[in-house]
Amino acid sequence: MALQGPFFGKREEPAPPTRNPAGSSLGSASSLGSASNSASSLAAATPLAAPAVAPAPSAAPSGESSARLTVGPNIKLKGVEITDCDTVVVEGMVEATMHSRVIEVAESGVFKGDAEIDIAEVRGQFDGNLTARQKLTIFSTGKVTGKIRYGKIVIEEGGELSGDVTSNTTPASGGTSTAGAKGAKGEQLAVGA
């Protein structure tokens, strides 16, 4: 019954300070009418929710604005087309077609599908058609299989690459092109053109 007063009926002026102990923390708002007391109660609750929303906008203006998609661990994203995304981070499983700038496949991540991107960094598994226009990096825990096209390639010791692999760079002299990649023991890898 004491809680009904501020929301449903008009209170008398002397009653709010004695009945509502939370009203004393609102300061001078308790001396106002019941409509302003309800409004001040809502205003007091609003700042508590605002900090939870505030960090998201402040993360974007850190230099260059970018669109970033993270598929977290134990999450499966199936049957989608991902476009106009600057960075896609795969920690779970993604089955998709992707046209973006950067893909980062974490150790726990699996990507299956088609990806046409600028830079690929694979620590987990990639299976499908991959076109890395600028650079493909396969870390020691990474495994890439399928039809692979790349500008430059780096494979750490332990990293795996298998399938139809071709360099996007066209050598001026023709024949075999050197991709600029180091093999497991540091030797230069050659890819037929």
Structure in a nutshell:
18% of the residues lie in helices and 45% in strands. The protein has 193 residues and is of the alpha/beta class. Strand 10 and strand 11 (188-192) form a beta hairpin.
Biggest β-sheet description = 9 strands, parallel
Helix and strand element order: HHHHEEEEEEEEEEE
Give the total of domains.
Answer: 2
Strand residue content: over 45%
Low-confidence stretches: 20-63, 172-188
**Cα-atom radius of gyration:** 29 Å
| Total number of strands | 11
SS field, number of helical segments = 4
Terminal Cα span: 84 Å
Averaged pLDDT: 72
Tell the overall outline.
globular
Helix content: 10-25%
What is the SS-derived class? alpha/beta
Q: Could you explain how this protein is built, in words?
A:
It is a single chain. The protein is of the alpha/beta class and about 190 residues long. The chain folds into two domains: about 5-60, no CATH class; about 70-190, no CATH class. About 20% of the residues lie in helices and about 45% in strands. The protein has four helices and eleven strands, in the order ααααβββββββββββ. The strands form two sheets. Strands 1, 2, 3, 4, 5, 6, 7, 8 and 9 form a nine-stranded parallel β-sheet that branches. Strands 10-11 form a two-stranded antiparallel ribbon. Strand 10 (about 175-180) and strand 11 (about 190) form a beta hairpin. The radius of gyration is 29 Å and the shape is globular.
